[in-house]
């Protein structure tokens, strides 16, 4: 695996190019964020790189935020990419335009948020790159709207949720890793997510358990945890995990899209999939379990010694995947 310094040499990244990453020992950070009205939301996002460069949209997961890409973004910008990193609904500075809109976090709703963002920014086509919720969102757009997706980088492969399949139990070890999903199915879990102190304790525990080799510091966690203070955060997180287990309803407006996703549409755009070998959610078999869902140009990579938060734990490898996927 190449490290950040090696990747910088490969791409010709100068010290000035990485100026936004902070001083040594400090967590990387973005500069001033932007806001745009898109669909049901006022979306907060970071933007790095030349305004007319080929666009890469980086999508974060849970319990993370845009800072998972704080080191990836300048690496890509140095190569000429325009990098957009939005807060997903319920996170950071992204807010619903109406108090009457359902705080719905089913998969198709989140995917449509990103399509609406692309429309609002007049982005016809982009490379989509994500992990966790972000992988799922990118996978859905690549599958249902391939004309909007130049190429795809997806951590953990094909993550489109199948509600019927989710009713079947997994192996005990796999179920153990999903402990918080079942906690969120209870009112105790909902109450914990509404409590700022307990929410921070819970999300930090998830960071520690799903990324066992990542030695992050307090400042790195707190920078991201600020995004969890969004007033809709608890409602969005709870609905997402309850909906996946068929314990919460979606909205009828998304039924047609969910039926298409239930049919497990293949992804035809150029794709690089990444597996992290220290991530408890990584399926065994080095990507074999989802290989047949990608029918276009394809490459798969396993990242040794890396946990769930791939772009923040291995920014150079993630950025390299984005650079390489457009060459497949």
TrEMBL record:
- Residue span, AB hydrolase-1 domain: 54-222
Q: Which domain of life is it from?
A: Bacteria
A GO biological-process term: acylglycerol catabolic process
| Family annotation (InterPro entries) | AB_hydrolase_1 (IPR000073), AB_hydrolase_fold (IPR029058), AB_hydrolase_sf (IPR050266), Epox_hydrolase-like (IPR000639)
Q: Which Pfam families match?
A: Abhydrolase_1
Q: Which GO terms describe its molecular function?
A: monoacylglycerol lipase activity
Q: Which GO terms describe its cellular component?
A: membrane
The name on file for this protein is Pimeloyl-ACP methyl ester carboxylesterase
Q: Give the originating organism.
A: Streptosporangium saharense
**Organism phylogeny:** Bacteria, Bacillati, Actinomycetota, Actinomycetes, Streptosporangiales
């Amino acid at each position: 695996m190449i490290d950040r310094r090696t990747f910088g040499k490969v791409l010709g990244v100068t010290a000035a190019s990485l100026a936004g990453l902070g001083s040594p020992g400090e967590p990387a950070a973005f500069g001033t964020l932007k806001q745009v009205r898109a669909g049901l939301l006022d979306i907060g996002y970071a933007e790095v790189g030349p305004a007319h460069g080929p666009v890469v949209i980086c999508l974060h997961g849970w319990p993370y935020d845009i800072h998972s890409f704080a080191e990836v973004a300048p690496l890509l910008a140095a190569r000429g990419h325009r990098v957009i990193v939005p807060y997903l609904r319920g996170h950071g500075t992204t807010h619903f335009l109406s108090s009457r809109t359902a705080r719905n976090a089913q998969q198709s709703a989140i995917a449509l948020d990103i399509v609406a963002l692309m429309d609002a920014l007049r982005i016809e086509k982009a490379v989509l790159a994500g992990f966790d919720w972000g992988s799922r969102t990118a996978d859905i757009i690549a599958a249902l709207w391939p004309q909007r997706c130049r190429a795809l980088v997806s951590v953990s492969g094909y993550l489109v949720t199948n509600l019927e399949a989710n009713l079947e139990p997994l192996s005990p070890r796999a179920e153990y890793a999903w402990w918080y999903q079942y906690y969120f199915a209870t009112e105790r879990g909902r109450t914990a997510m509404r409590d700022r102190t307990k929410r921070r304790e819970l999300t930090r525990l998830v960071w520690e358990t799903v990324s066992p080799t990542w030695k992050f510091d307090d400042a790195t966690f707190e920078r991201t945890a600020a995004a969890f203070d969004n007033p809709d955060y608890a409602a969005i997180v709870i609905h997402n995990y309850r909906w996946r287990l068929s314990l919460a309803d979606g909205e009828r407006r998304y039924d047609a899209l969910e039926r298409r996703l239930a049919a497990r549409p293949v992804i035809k755009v150029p794709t690089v999939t990444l597996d992290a070998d220290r991530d408890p959610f990584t399926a065994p078999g080095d990507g074999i379990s989802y290989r047949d869902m990608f029918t276009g140009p394809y490459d798969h990579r396993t990242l040794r010694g890396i946990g769930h938060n791939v772009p923040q734990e291995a920014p150079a490898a993630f950025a390299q995947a984005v650079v390489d996927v457009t060459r497949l």
